[in-house]
Amino acid sequence: MKTTLTVIFLSLATFGFAQDKYFTRNGTITFFSSTPAEDIQAQNFGVTSVLDIKSGDMEFSLLMKSFEFKKALMQEHFNENYVESDKFPKASFKGKVRDISSIDFSKDGKHQVKVSGDMTLHGITKPVTSDGTIEIKDGKVHANSKLMIKPEDYGIEIPSVVRANIAKEMEVTVNTTLDPLNR
Amino acid sequence: MKQILAIATLLLWSFSGNAQEEEGGSLLDLLEEEETTNYASASFKTTRIINAQSIENVAEGVLDFKISHRFGMLNAGAYEAFGLDNATIRLGLDYGITKNLMVGFGRSSWQKALDGFVKYRILRQSTGKRNMPITLSVHSSIAVNMLRWANPERDNFLTSRLVYTHQVLIGRKISSGTSIMLMPTLIHRNLVETKAEKNDVYALGIGGRQKLTKRLALTGEYYYVLPDQIADIYSNALSLGIDIETGGHVFQLHFTNSTAMIDKGVITETTGRWDKGDIHFGFNVSRVFTIREQRRPKE
Description:
Chain A has helices at 2-16, 72-82, and strands at 21-34, 39-52, 57-63, 68-69, 90-97, 109-121, 124-137, 140-149, 170-180. With 183 residues, chain A is mainly beta. Chain A is elongated, with a radius of gyration of 20 Å. Chain B has 299 residues and is mainly β. In chain B, a hairpin with a 4-residue loop joins strand 3 (87-96) and strand 4 (101-108). Chain A binds chain B through residues 1-2, 5, 9, 12-13, 16, 21, 23, 25, 45, 48, 50-52, 55, 57-59, 61, 63, 65, 68-73, 75-77, 79-81, 84, 86-87, 89, 92, 94, 159, 161-162, 165, 181, 183, and chain B through 1, 4-5, 8, 11-12, 15, 19, 23, 26-28, 30-31, 34, 36, 38, 41-42, 59-62, 176, 214-215, 245-248, 288, 290, 293-294, 296.
């Protein structure tokens, strides 16, 4: 009797701890600004993300200071003058993958998805919607997306002197490989 | 038996309770936050406050071309356009060998002097995983007067004109707009004119910057030379200015009683006095060139 109960209890417990959440701490987010005058690119290799494959909830968080530029002075100006990293150290996204229930996470495969939610950058939160892919391979979930972001929408001022060098819209690329979250 | 059941039920209850809590909270809370080190950056807009070295280094692989200019003295009057007719200039190149080590050299029209320096950052102000209240750098420079010898028929030695400056630069970015610095300084002069003047001169510098807007800042620096070390004709150098930043350039405009733009001249050979109107208007222009692009830091 005791053993049966233990078995039931254990199976219940494992069911509760089932791998319905995936995470990463070293996802990549890149932004790219292209103008006739200059191309500017920066990469952040320390993106934290969690995906709940049951509910479709998805969150991202990153440190603004971790964006790496090719030119050191650009990186300094980015943090000091544009995104004000001391005041707003983090950017985040909190949203949902639509129709996540249609994806079978037990099988390898690639799926087109739509993600929508709220992005917070420079202290300002705005709704964003983006197309992306979720690929299941070898027990890992690869979540990728590309979206356009306007610095103006987030109160990031660009002075007229450098207006020609900084694009009105930046292309943001998200590349993450999520591992099962074992609690 | 009943006990076990009760415990199991309780556990299950508490479990479902937990699950409910999660739904309202953030998914990211499931991950323990990794503590990171947040380094203070851009305490000053450039590697000089005005004449003095700041706690900033040029980044690794970056070349900084510095054009420094001091007009004549304001008290020269209208005939000399309040000093604008005269100018003293220093052209210099600074280069960042690593992120903490930079070197530079320059030539001044003042004394036709050549100078070179090395600056190494030992401590870097940070919070988080590594907590450090200050940035600390050491800076050493050497300068030599290259004017023709006054008495060429004598035995003259170039070494007698060498002057070494050693400084510890201690700075703190107090807030995003305010930074302060202390600069204990030792200057060694191989040869001095009279016995009353010391070969080794001790001085203490203070400096700071206050941002007014993102791209505009007030700056100031003052060197206090400890008494009875240099001749009476020399006074302490005080410089006040503004920094204007535009993309790859930093323009520094200032007023100073020092004609020289190198350490030994500013600290031990400043003849001008503020109270007499011996004030130079001047500017420094800094233009950086990325010679080597930033490497990804090793994980």
